[in-house]
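> example.struct
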């Protein structure tokens, strides 16, 4: 597949890394020559310095025979014009654009992106993706990572194990015997910085960070077995009332189960906008690092604090301060991936990486086969892929034990009709099933091959 990626920032670089590693023909375009050079030096990609929306630049990048263009520059308008030029001048079949401004994303204006208007096939909103990720963290406060699959019927849970975990030092194969009715599978383990797909004989140890795929109805029991509390979140303090904080607060107000939220926003104008937009949420104007303001927000009685300002260090410090004042769960929005190793030493329970959420959303639309969902784990170290099994897939009609899955891949869940089952070696994968697979990055191409369909579906 020939792909042009416009924008060589964090998101563009990661997408280029994914696609070039899978032997796609990738060209990166950016008006910053240094960013282009960084991409071409580190990755197996071609690079071109220039304005992505200029027709002559896209022509030199190979747009005439490109299969896809991904516009992920820092400018919404450049991304939109790039897609328009790619469509009108070069007839590029598939166009994906990252758009940030909420005005472009309002539902009443969605007609704007029709092929005869502004021909963008997929619009990605980082703010909405981050807000969704934040809501998942709040809904599962004892996890460091969470994602939904199979229409909400299965959950990926990131669980950090302690000495109190009842199943430490127990081989995974024994978990099936001890909890025969539990619909949950350990698909990934990070130990001493290394992520791997465990084998049945492997044991879990204190300090491990585990990724578990659980049936939604068994999440509470799964958390209990792994030594975590399944307490429901009832009170949340949001530090930051910008686009992300406001989106999260609105979503919390719209939930059927009542969650009381308070928003702290330093900028007075932004605080006033949030107060006007929200009905039941208290908005406080002030610094989220201020002890007095956090105390006024009743941080000690809150179940979680969610720090989502546009400054990483403010988010981290606010999370640490909230924990010191008695808040049991602190979640921080962190854009800079080099800061992620500091989360554990600082006692921050979970973090949200906008780059990772945006990359996951884009990957969902570029994977081969009937891929419904993709979630990128860590620094592009692994993916969890949800896909429909078609008749032409090599795995159709095969039992799991007879399928040549790569060493770094595990099946986490399988949906047969309306029923979600815990897979085991004897489970037969049938046409029409929806499968959830954890795969290390190096094994994603082989997993895609196993999900491969005829050329009509590409």
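> example.seq
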């Amino acid at each position: 597949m020939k792909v042009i990626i416009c924008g060589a920032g964090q998101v563009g670089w990661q997408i280029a890394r994914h696609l070039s590693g899978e032997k796609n023909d990738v060209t990166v375009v950016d008006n910053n020559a240094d960013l282009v050079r960084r991409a071409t030096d580190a990755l197996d990609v071609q690079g071109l310095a220039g304005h992505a929306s200029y027709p002559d630049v896209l022509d030199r990048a190979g747009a005439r025979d490109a299969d896809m263009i991904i516009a992920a520059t820092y400018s919404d308008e450049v991304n939109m014009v790039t897609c328009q030029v790619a469509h009108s001048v070069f007839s590029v079949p598939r166009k994906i654009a990252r758009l940030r401004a909420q005005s472009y994303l309002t539902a009443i204006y969605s007609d704007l992106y029709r092929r005869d208007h502004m021909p963008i096939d997929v619009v990605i909103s980082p703010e909405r993706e981050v807000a969704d990720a934040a809501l998942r963290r709040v809904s599962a406060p004892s996890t460091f990572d969470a994602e939904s699959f199979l229409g909400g019927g299965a959950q990926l849970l990131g669980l950090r194990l302690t000495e109190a975990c009842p199943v430490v030092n127990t081989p995974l194969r024994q978990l099936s015997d001890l909890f025969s009715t539990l619909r949950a599978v350990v698909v990934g383990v990070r130990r001493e910085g290394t992520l791997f797909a465990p084998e049945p004989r492997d044991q879990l140890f204190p300090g491990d960070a585990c990724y578990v795929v659980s049936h939604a109805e068994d999440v509470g029991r799964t958390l209990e077995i792994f030594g975590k509390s399944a307490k429901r979140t009832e009170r949340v303090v949001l530090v930051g009332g910008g686009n992300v904080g406001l989106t999260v607060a609105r979503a919390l107000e719209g939930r059927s189960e009542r969650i009381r939220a308070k928003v702290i926003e330093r900028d007075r104008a932004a605080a006033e906008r949030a107060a006007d937009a929200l009905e039941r949420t208290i908005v406080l104007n002030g610094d989220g690092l201020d002890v007095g303001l956090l105390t006024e927000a009743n941080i000690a009685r809150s179940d979680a604090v969610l720090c989502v300002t546009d400054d990483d260090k403010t988010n981290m410090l606010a999370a640490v301060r909230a924990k010191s004042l008695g808040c049991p769960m602190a979640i921080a929005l962190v854009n800079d991936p080099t800061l992620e190793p500091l989360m554990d030493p600082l006692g921050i329970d979970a973090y949200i990486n906008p780059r990772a959420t945006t990359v996951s959303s884009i990957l969902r639309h570029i994977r081969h086969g009937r891929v419904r969902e993709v979630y990128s784990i860590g620094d592009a170290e692994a993916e969890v892929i949800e896909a429909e099994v078609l008749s032409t897939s090599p795995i159709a009609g095969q039992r799991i034990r007879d399928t040549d899955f790569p060493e770094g891949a595990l099946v986490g869940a399988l949906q047969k009709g309306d029923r979600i089952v815990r897979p085991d070696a004897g489970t037969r994968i049938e046409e029409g099933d929806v499968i959830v697979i954890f795969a290390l990055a190096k094994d994603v191409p082989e997993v895609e091959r196993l999900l491969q369909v005829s050329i009509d579906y590409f």
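> remarks
The first strand starts at residue 2 and ends at 6.
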